[in-house]
Each structure stands twice: as structure tokens, then as C-alpha cells.
Structure prediction request, 263 residues.
Amino acid sequence: MKKRLTLLFVLCITGRETDAQEVQGIQHVVPWHVDLVHGLEEYKRGQHFEVRADLGVKQYYNTMNVDLEYERALSRRLGLEIKVPMAFYGRRKPCRKTDGNPIPNKVEGVEAGLQYVVALMPRAHLTMALGVMQACYLQPFRFLKKDRHLITGFSESLVMVLGKYWNRHWHTMLYAGPEWKQINGEGAKCTFQCDLSIHYQWTKACTAGIEYVWKSEEHEAGLLYPQAKFAVREHMELGIAAGIPLEGGPDAWRFTSGITIKL
Prediction:
């Protein structure tokens, strides 16, 4: 795992950087569930904080996920992200799965990632990037009194991102790669994730589209997410999406809405 991270980092640092004649980045629409380390456009040297809040409605309980993100452009093509995801749960109605043992609110872990734009092809309106993400998972704090370890596991993901700008309005993006996960008390396992999306963009402030999300460890047929995003202000964005499982029972249905604020 360390060898893969070191190799990608060396490739990023030693990648060719051009100056005045560097082509300008292409603006791509990023789908709802893809959390890029950085956008695929040319990075501006600088840093910013981002707060993402996402509300999900399930059959027996509601979820609220809040992500605190710090992003920094290390170079014109290399971006760094550090994220702290948190999860909050609220029971909607009695359920045997949660009665007497409610799902605890928690800080889910700490994640760090690097993303490098390896190809900018303006004539083809195509951008390709490679990324690596490391994460450690944390125990709910209330369980620490039971002599449990704070860290419950680790994971690493390698991803390839392809963004295609077809014309003034249509955008597609492919996000795919393997993930290695090691959870305490369980064996190590490798899974594969794939995210394919198509969006129609009326203006920079308004987009709508559909996203297909598949993970080898979850719903075999994947989920479809019809979605829309609206920019309320320059640094604030609202979004809404509905998760439609191609297989599974009613508990697999999802409805999410969220707000993104860039500080």
C-alpha cells in the first residue's frame, strides 16, 4: 500500500509543469456522489475550506452526513485534500434493527487524498486525472469506555477520472478504481467502484443529470441518481438527488439533499 502511494506521489511531483504556454483547464460538471480531491480545471495556487451537508431519508431512519474539507493546490495540476466526515442519525419509526441499540452519531474518520491532472486535451474537450485516497476509520466516541480501540480500520483507493465536455451544455464523467480495506477483526478485502454520469448544464449556476453508481460490495446492479444542482451564491451550492436501486428492497431507496459552502 505504501509503495503504491509513494509511486503516485513521485509521478505527480515529477510531472512536467509548463508556464506561460500551459493550456487552460476545461470546466467539467462534477456529479453528486463523486468527491474529487479537486476539480479537473487548472488549479489556482491557493487553499479553501469546504463544508458539505447531506440529508438522506431511509425507511426506518434519517441520516445527515457533514464533511469538513480542506483543499490546497500544490501546483497547477496537483491538488491535496484532507477531509473529516461525520454522520448523524435520527430514527423515524420503531425497527428491530435499531430498537435498544440505536445507531450512534460519530466522526467517521479522517481522509487524505492527492489528485494529479495527467492530460488536458482542449481540442477533444477531454481531461484525465489520477488520484489516491487514504482513510482511517474511527470508533464512535461513546464506545471508547468499553476498552475499544479508537481506530477501527484503514483503506486506500486508486481512481481514474475522465471528464468529457461535449458541447455548450452536455458533460459526462467517469470515476472508477479499486479500493483496499482492512477492518479490525475482519480480513483485508479489495472492491471496485464505478461512477458514470451525464449532465445538462443550462448555465454555470444550474445543472441537471443522472448518475450511475456501482460498488462490487453493495447492490450488484448499482443505483441511479437523478439529480440537480443550483448555485445560490458564488460560494454556495444546493443540490437534490434521489437514489433508485436497480435491485433491492424499499430500504435501498435513498433521497438526499445537501448544501456546499466554500469558504
